[in-house]
Specification:
The structure is a single chain. It is elongated, with a radius of gyration of 28 Å. The two termini are 45 Å apart. An eight-stranded mixed beta sheet has the order 7-12-5-4-15-21-24-18, with helices on both faces. It folds into four domains: 1-61 and 75-114, no CATH class; 138-312, Acetylglutamate kinase-like (Carbamate kinase, 3-Layer(aba) Sandwich), CATH 3.40.1160; 319-453, no CATH class; 458-630, 3-Layer(aba) Sandwich (Aminopeptidase), CATH 3.40.630. It is an alpha+beta fold. Strand 1 (39-40) and strand 2 form a beta hairpin. Helices cover 33% and strands 22% of the residues. It contains 18 helices and 33 strands. Pathway: Amino-acid biosynthesis; L-arginine biosynthesis; N(2)-acetyl-L-ornithine from L-glutamate: step 1/4. Keywords: Acyltransferase, Amino-acid biosynthesis, Mitochondrion, Transferase, Transit peptide.
Length: 631
Amino acid sequence: MIIPPTPTRGVSKFSVSSLIQTQFVSRWLRQTLGAGRGDVCGFRLFSHSQHKHVLQSPATETVSEDSVDDDGNAGMQVQSVVKDRDFYVKLLSSAPSPREARSFLKKFSSSLPPPKTRLATGSTSKQGISTHHPLLDAPDRIDNLALVLVETGLPRSELESFATTLVYLQKLGLTTIVVLNEAAHSTDRIGQTYHRSTGKEYRDRALHEAFRVANVLDRSGGRGMPIYDGVFQLNEPHFTPDASLIQVASLESGTSPVTASLSTIHTALRLHQTPILTSLATTTSHHVPLSSSISVSALAQALVADTRLADPARLIIVNSRGGVRTQAGPLSLVSLEEDYEDIVEEFARRARAVTPADNSGNIPTFLPGPGLEDEDELLDPTQLRDLQLCKTVLSQLPPTSSAIIAAASASPTLLYNILTDRPLFSSSLPPPSNNLVISDLELTPSEAPTVVRTGVKVTTHTSLDTLDLPRLKELLEASFGKTLAADPFWDRLRSCMDCTLLAGDYMGASIMTREPWPADEPVPRGEEMDVISGKHPGVVYLDKFAAHPKAQGSGVADALWRRMDRMYGDWLWRSRADNPVNKWYFDRSDGNFRLPGTHWMVFWHGARGIPRMRAYAEVCRDIPASFGPSK
């Protein structure tokens, strides 16, 4: 069976052959499923003279004598193999580039499940009782961990889609801890009053939902362990019981009275079961409902302090709504350092009314008027709550950790994110006009999940005096792989630099200059002239665009590009015709042409490019080269 690539605008599709030809991937698949030397998930690899690889399905399914267990359950094993095979074929058909695959395997290979083998001789006692116990196979430390917040009350079909994806994530080596998100108590502040009867109703409802999720997970091939007690504790000074009600003090950032105990979670994970937690805190005598954001934050703090569990690499928020949307469209990526305040400001500006209340998280509380929900569903405050939770949790985790907000119906996209650690479409491009296709799942752009990262802060420098020039030189040389002619380059920038945008701690940079309008070129009609000199103010030129190799895939380039887009409407740049980055430039430019008689491609961004083409050509001809030979 040949699997052709599916071209999709806005999604970086990857050919199956490009990944198959990297031997470590096929070796990983063989180890994961325990397949024979020449088989990958029941498929056999063939190499043709043209060096093309195809996946061919065996014509018939055969079951060897060794594959039949003592109870003769051959049919169930065949179904399991077929299901696993289909999963890996789907995975490969929507998988990333070989570089991203290597990055994934480097992080997750230690957590991949061992090959499936029969028990060794002597694993049962004389009485026929197995001496094998899951605790004996439990690892001393779990390296790849994700916190998963799941909205309660999901329709059965969506819950099944999520459960199947959760099982596949575990096959990829990701250990998950599930926390149920009760919508009725989703506010970020607990300053609410709960009647004891209401608390009991919440507990009963939470228990029912925990067992419902566990049941669906079990039917999907996983193993869930509902846990409703013993994880979250509420410190007594913050607990004020009354004759008929329970009151909990409001929580301030960093001073949460809720703590998390991991003993029952350790037990579940060592038994290879997925903990399914309810957001119930206990005191000496009561169960108190918590907001899921507070429980997840407390759990993250406990995990960071724990030595047997690694810091969570992902926070996954699964809901019925999907990712974050603004007036500009769905957001595929949110950099908290760069985008969070702007998103909050937009929500506040568009809200019908904002309560100027005590709000330590800087999240506006919306009081929509009658019918506003129908008129503007983008004002759904749960979007901001999700972002605030991401911000709170990621601030406690390493900068390499990330979050993803996805609809349960789009759960398969989580596999793509785990493999690539990037969004479905680039944040520096407009949302695609066509539907997105991941494996056999088709999504509209508005249904795409949102990846959330801490990101890097982009700072603006209008003078070389505020820059560390040796470090900037090191960044440019590492990015371009060439030696910078530093002195003449700095001299040129001192006369024409408009600004340098610096990402993080010299992890990326955009150097923008303002080049004079060519003297022999007429100024197009409609161009604004300088009021004082009466001359054209010049054109903005992207002299250098660099991302450190260590920052590749972290969103640094997208963050710089989005900042440039906000600051400048029009700019141009040039690139060698054989530059492999040109594909990225083609996608983001509004036009381009080959500069005659040179090795340069000229690109422009903005609506003014066509009438400026002759001027752009002259500007690019006159700028001296700044790099020497390759290192």
